[in-house]
Amino acid sequence: MTLPSIKGDAIAAFPAERQKATVVTLPPAVPRRFDIIALATRLAQSIVPPLVVLLVLLAVWQVAFSGPGSSLPPPSEIWNESSDLILDPFFVNGTQDIGLGWRVIVSLERVAIGFGLAAVAGVLLGALVGQSVWMMRGLDPIFQVLRTVPPLAWLPISLAAFMDSRPSAIFVIFITAIWPVIINTAAGVRNIPEDYRNVARVLRLNQVEFFFKIMVPAAAPYIFSGLRIGVGLSWLAIVAAEMLTGGVGIGFFIWDAWNSSRLTDIIVALVYIGLVGFLLDRLVGFVGVIVTRGPAAS
Amino acid sequence: MSGYLKLDYIGKSFSRGGKVSEVLRDIRLTIDEGEFVSIIGHSGCGKSTLLNLVAGLTPVSSGAVLLENREVNAPGPDRAVVFQNHSLLPWLSVYDNVALAVTKVFRGRKSKAERHAWIMENLDLVQMAHAADKRPGEISGGMKQRVGIARALAMEPKILLLDEPFGALDALTRAHLQDQMMEIHARLGNTMIMITHDVDEAVLLSDRIVMMTNGPAATIGEVLTVPLPRPRERLALASDRTYLRCREAVLKFLYERHRFVEAAA
User: Fold this and answer.
1) ω before B216 within 30° of 0 (cis)?
2) Is the dihedral of CA B249, B252, B258, B263 positive or negative?
3) How many CB atoms lie within 10 A of CB A205?
4) Is residue A141's pLDDT more than 50?
5) Measured distance CA(B45)–CA(B39) in Å, rounded
6) Quick one: which of A77, A153, B107, B176 is 20 to 30 A from B47 by CA?
7) What are the per-10-residue average pLDDT scores of chain B (265 residues)?
């Protein structure tokens, strides 16, 4: 291959040789088929193992508690005695004889009110504590002490204050769920990058604008992890609170069943509570993922 | 018009744990309307502090910043800042980032349609209109910085403050943005102050280069006027005598007379 020589000490750039580009034809894209086998395989991979484990556990339980003197009922007895509760969550046979689905809805309503209030108040208080050094010094120690008080310990006080069981139960939910929301929000607000604050200062955003446009979106991942812990705690508290305050909730149902020695009903109710708690946790987590998609993407 | 922005014997000291450290002392500088001034110096000499003082983000310890003969001591959209790391809000789209500034500054003065047109005009100016709906996480570093410039320009500031705007970018992107910056300056005639540690960038863009001495208690060592006519051509200047002379003057200041010494603290 011969290259043109450089004349004298001049530096010359040589144009690259022109070559005709070869066009490569790609095979036409195969339209995506709805692959039912792959989908079924994936579904089976996530459903089969827990199902197998569940069946094994039920079998062990059945064998262990089938003896004549056993203290707890085996699964077969639960099915015989309480299949109406399992099969139809939404029957109504009278004011106190209703399906567990209805009871769960009543409990969820209380949780919704108590947790909703806790979320709003918690974010506001958390913002205050995160934003101001003085507020943090003043309030943080109090929060740290109060958050360790077990939910039920608040019940007598709230009964005395509200003199009614319904608001008392809601208050117990509120006071249980609020601490993680406050503490996480405050951490999130403290971690807002200085740059975002400077942007707000140059734009002269006022307190309200700063709260909605910078603080809440910037702290959203923290806020949602607080809310997720909070919703779990409030579901823990509602059952305990309802046991003591009565009404038609799922918690009271367990207490009522215990008083009338319906152990099988209690076990069915436990499964309901577990499943609903799981769904609540996933729901808040899911909302969090959708809302915080923006910050996570950068 | 002279004395658009005046820095009048500005000093800044920080005190931490009873110890007072003086960062800047007796800064005196007058900048005319439409002027492009670069501030150059070794790292740690207080360049960024000086910019923050002009922006009002940090209060001065002594002296005063005067804009159109009025003292300014709080941040405001009349002194828009282009931050070193773009500082776009990641949860807002490119459009919404600029819209946040435009809505805040022009609410009551422009109608909704006018504000929309103004946002798009500024995105157009930095050639980012095509990515208006993208999130900052989806665009490159150079593009983010362009959006940051659009956001600052959209505030219609009296003075545009640029804090090492191209420092975090690769050389090619940086050159491209410098050219764009010169175009914008020619078109809008904004007064601009830019912090930089790049000698070529300073000479290429500036009307005057302010050279800072080393800290502590840094001050202005020298001010160099760059007598190059505009518009300036990057390639033509590479062998221009005046350009090379200016470049040499800045280099001599930085590496002969005020060699960077690592602080012993």
Assistant:
1) yes
2) positive
3) 18
4) yes
5) 11
6) B176
7) 81 87 90 93 87 92 91 90 89 94 90 93 90 91 91 92 88 89 89 92 93 87 90 88 92 82 50
Residue among A243, A272, A247 at smallest CA distance from A255: A243
Give the position of tokens 């923006």: A294
Residue that the structure tokens 């300056």 belong to: B185
Dig out the tokens for B124 from the structure. 């157009």
Query: In whole angstroms, what is the distance from residue B133 CA to residue A54 CA?
Result: 48
> Which residues of chain A are within 8 Å of residue B55 when distances are taken between CB atoms?
202
Beta carbons of B223 and B213 less than 8 angstroms apart:
no
Distance CA B187, CA B60 (A): 33
In this prediction the pTM is: 0.79
CA distance B83 to B88: 9
ipTM of the prediction: 0.86
Per DSSP, the three-state class of B4 is: coil
Q: Which residue of B has its CA nearest to A192?
A: B89
Question: Cα separation of A106 and A90, whole Å?
Answer: 12
Which residue shows structure tokens 């339209």? A31
B89 DSSP 8-state letter: -
Per-residue DSSP letter, A8: T
Distances (CA, A) of A148 to A151, A179, A180, B92, B138: 9, 9, 11, 38, 43
- Which among B194, B150, B157 has a CA at the least distance from the CA of B75? B157
Task: Check if A217 contacts B (Cβ < 8 Å).
Answer: yes
Token pair of A50, please?
């827990």
Q: How far apart are CA A268 and CA A191, in angstroms?
A: 44
Are the beta carbons of B27 and B219 closer than 8 angstroms?
A: yes
Q: Which three-class secondary structure state does DSSP give residue A48?
A: helix
A 10 A CB-CB count for A134 gives 8
- pLDDT at res. A60: 92
Element of type H or E holding B210 = strand B208-212
Angle at B117 between CA B116 and CA B121, to 5 degrees: 120
Does residue B80 sit at the A interface (CB-CB below 8 Å)?
yes
Residue A15 CA to residue A238 CA, distance in Å, equals: 79
CB contact under 8 A, A297 and B137: yes
Q: How far apart are the first and last CA of chain B?
A: 44
Chain A residues with CB under 8 Å of B59 CB are none
Tens digits of residue pLDDT in A2-42? 555 555 555 666 667 676 777 777 777 666 666 788 888 88
Longest dimension (CA), chain A: 110
DSSP E strand stretches across B17-148: 19-31, 36-40, 62-67, 70-71, 79-82
Question: What's the confidence (pLDDT) of residue A12?
Answer: 60
Positive or negative, the CA dihedral A265, A270, A275, A279 is positive
